[in-house]
Specification:
By secondary structure, the chain is an all-alpha fold. Helix 4 packs antiparallel against helix 5.
């Protein structure tokens, strides 16, 4: 899942983003809507950190949206098998990100 990706990969970057951006923005203490906004903003800034290119910015926003949607899905406990949910998230991420990363804005 997208959550495990960020836990296992980019461990130091994830810790820094969480400790200095996400928690500073309010984390999840100000309601669910604000939590989702904080996730998206944090991942947007993480994408910007990777490079000052629209591809990285869009990559960050897509990951923030994926984290927010995954939390919504798990919050409302949609009855999907865990394997199906992870396959759905991975497939959606693959099909959404590959075209975005190939975009060249001149």
């Amino acid at each position: 899942s997208i959550t495990e990706f960020w836990r296992r990969w980019h461990i130091s970057l994830s810790s820094w983003l969480k400790d200095y951006l996400y928690i500073s923005l309010g984390g999840n203490r100000k309601g669910k809507l604000r939590q989702y906004v904080n996730l998206i903003v944090t991942m947007f800034l993480g994408g910007l950190w990777h490079g000052a290119s629209w591809n990285f910015v869009l990559w960050g926003v897509l990951h923030g949206l994926a984290l927010a949607v995954l939390d919504l899905v798990l919050r409302f406990q949609i009855l999907l098998e865990p394997f199906s949910l992870s396959t759905l998230c991975a497939s959606a991420g693959y099909f959404l990100e590959i075209p975005v990363l190939k975009i060249r804005l001149t």
